[in-house]
Write a structure and sequence with these properties.
9-stranded mixed sheet, two-stranded antiparallel ribbon, alpha/beta, 250 residues
């Protein structure tokens, strides 16, 4: 089975973000990067599926060529090969353009099963997976917390507001992965050494126009300093008055 794990290079969660002087975006050159947390779950599930059913796993990413370090980590964790759709402006690409480019590459790679993170930890949109499946005309199951898969169909459990739902799906399919589906493995020394010999290809992404343009980035206003309205039960009326008339949350 030909399996793809779509992974995104994102700034680390503790990165100190700086804006460009013209407020047109973020300064990205000095940022530390990592693979998005949910995409690590997607990669692990792709490798587990390969180990159960056979085949190979391709790690697919849209981003700069300098992201090869993070993509090599995917190879060290069990992916057989990797493809980077090189785009130095990947951070300004909207969901529409990203999904179209990934769908075009997935079609060329002749995959039967694609795993993605439920959401990217930088944008938090949760849109690329379902949009990609729509462009491919494939089944899509979002936010999977448990699954079993065979050669032509599978079952998955999804956590919803009403409880756990179990769904059946046919292949080809796009699966977006949620917390609890698995525990991503660490890259051991053997995997790290093997990753150096695995193929990592750079390709130009397909043309895709975005539907949203980033025009200006500004920092949120600073929060006002907190204040103590009193102590004990006597402070309750003053607290309620502040919540109602100042914070306007009551």
């Amino acid at each position: 089975m030909n399996i793809i794990a779509c992974v995104k290079r994102v700034p680390t969660t503790d990165a100190e973000v700086r804006f460009k002087a013209d407020a047109s975006g973020l300064e990205t050159d000095s940022l530390p990067y990592m693979i998005s947390f949910y995409d690590e779950i997607a990669l692990e599930q792709a490798v587990l599926t390969k180990e159960a059913l056979g085949g190979e796993v391709t790690a697919l990413s849209l981003g700069p060529a300098s992201g090869s370090k993070e993509i090599r980590e995917c190879l060290a964790k069990g992916a057989d090969k990797a493809v980077i759709l090189t785009d130095d402006e990947w951070m300004s690409s909207d969901c529409h353009a990203t999904a179209k480019r990934l769908a075009a590459a997935i079609g060329e790679l002749d995959a039967q099963l694609v795993f993605m993170g439920r959401v990217a930890t930088d944008r938090d949109n949760a849109a690329v997976g379902p949009m990609c499946a729509t462009y491919l005309g494939w089944a899509c199951v979002s936010g999977v917390i448990e699954m079993e898969c065979g050669e032509d169909k599978g079952t998955a459990k999804v956590e919803t507001e009403n409880g756990i739902e179990t769904v059946e799906f046919s292949l080809p399919a796009v699966i977006t992965c949620n917390k609890g589906l698995n525990t991503p493995r660490y890259a051991g020394l053997k995997g790290i050494m093997a990753a150096k010999k695995k193929p990592l290809e750079e390709q130009a992404p397909a043309e895709a126009d975005g539907q949203a343009v980033l025009s200006t980035v500004i920092a949120p206003p600073a929060r006002p300093e907190g204040r103590i309205v009193g102590t004990g039960a006597e402070a309750i009326p003053a607290l309620i008055d502040a919540l109602r008339n100042e914070a306007q949350v009551l």
